[in-house]
Hints:
Order of helices and strands: EEEHEHEHEEHEHHHHHHH
Helix content: 55-70%
Number of helices: 11
Amino acid sequence: MIRGERVGAFDIYGDTPEFFEIMPMNITQGRTINRIDVEDKRKVVVIGDRVYQEMFMAGENPIGEYLQIQGVYFKVVGVVKSKQRGQMAERDEKSVYMPFTTLQQTYNYGDIVGWYSITAKKGVPASEVEKKTKDYMKTRHHIHPDDDRAIGSWNMENEFNKFSNLFKGITILVWIVGMGTLFAGVVGVSNIMLIVVKERTKEIGIQRAIGAPPSAIISQIIIESVFLTTMAGYVGLVAGVGLLELVNYLLVASGAESEMFRNPEINFNMAMSALGILVISGIFAGLIPAKRAVSIKPIDALRDEG
């Protein structure tokens, strides 16, 4: 591709207006290819954002300018920026899109079609659309129904399911580890509260002797237990958020930022759920010590030497 003194090598695609409805792109300048462009075989192109950056000056308006592609001049009618990330976004933004009929006529492609981009209606699985499309293509081109290598395809649904299953497995593992850690914490807090009850045996006996009901003793022990578990959980949550922010800062600062791990964060609803579970765990952690506290007879508690 040539424009003045600037030269670039980019992928060129012939497409229809529907392509831009399927592919996740934003129109940053101008427009996309329309039906009239296709019918009249107009020599117009829509360029990706990276093409614009390399072939035009910063701030320059590309709409209406011409690019020379393999000896033929094409008018720029739009600039698009991909909504995807990583290599797929880079591929989309380093591409030039022209009407499919223009590509066929200008470069003598005839009836050759490189690939189709197909989307499913809402509620229809993409895998079902893929199967029906392949079956139709096999019938039309006299391909044996069992030949699965004649027509290639790439299904976003399959990739999405792979990642979904992967993250489901990770989530289950995190819950198993988390529940195990929480159980260990509950046992630890319960043991601490048992020690506290033992050390405050005389105090509990005095409270019982002056008329404190068992419910008051139980609520006192449970509240302390809940306070301990909640505070420990809150501190852990704050430390976890701080660690994630530190990791994100180091990734950005080192230039090793990964698309998959971009902007790590803790879901707010999950954080609140975790704190709720900690409160419930604190109640359970305090039940055994509380039961131990109310089982002590006042006279025995007063005799205790602690």
